[in-house]
Amino acid sequence: MADEQDFHEKRRHPRAPIGVIVRAETKEGGRHYYSKNLSSGGMFLLAEEPLPEETKLNLELFLPLVSTPVRIKGEVVWQKRQEPSGFAIKFTEISDGARKLIRWVVGRYLGQEDES
Q1: CB 13 within 8 A of CB 39
Q2: Structural domains in the chain, sorted by start
Q3: pTM, 2 dp
Q4: Cβ(69)–Cβ(62) under 8 Å?
Q5: Is 70 exceeded by the pLDDT of residue 60?
Q6: Which residue spans within the chain are E strands per DSSP?
Q7: Residue 103: CB partners within 8 Å, gap ≥ 6?
Q8: Helices and strands in the chain, H and E counts
Q9: CB 50 within 8 Å of CB 81
Q10: Residue 6 — very low, low, confident or very high, per pLDDT cuts 50/70/90?
């Protein structure tokens, strides 16, 4: 199991505590989650029953101030069972447009023009 502290130290993208609704589809089906935080490289989703590490996901993010859902592919990189329980996702396939939208939302939240 990946160590949460190691994962935090490897982050390359600024992360903001933005809560968004996320539709996550796996081979077994889909469900909605709520995010604890977001960056242009990944996010943490709150869940009573976290998904296993290495689970592949098709994601739809419903971002604030954005009219259509952002579609991204990701993979679960670690999970946390104590409160707040959930799992971290690394984005594995993301378009330039989707990455720019997330950077814009995160940058606005952090009071920046753009997340570089």
Answers
A1: yes
A2: 17-109 (2.40.10.220)
A3: 0.85
A4: yes
A5: yes
A6: 21-26, 29-38, 42-46, 56-62, 70-80, 86-93
A7: 40, 114, 115
A8: 2, 6
A9: yes
A10: very low
Scanning the structure block, which residue is given the tokens 């814009």? 104
Is 68 within 8 Å of 81 (Cβ atoms)?
Answer: no
Query: If we measure between CA atoms, which residue out of 52, 36, 23 comes closest to residue 84?
Result: 36
Q: How far apart are CA 68 and CA 79, in angstroms?
A: 28
pLDDT at 58: 98
* Tokens 């089906």 found at: 29
Nearest to 2 by CA among 42, 32, 39, 30: 42
93 token code pair: 């396939």
Higher pLDDT, 36 or 112: 36
Alpha carbon distance 79, 3 (integer Å)? 9
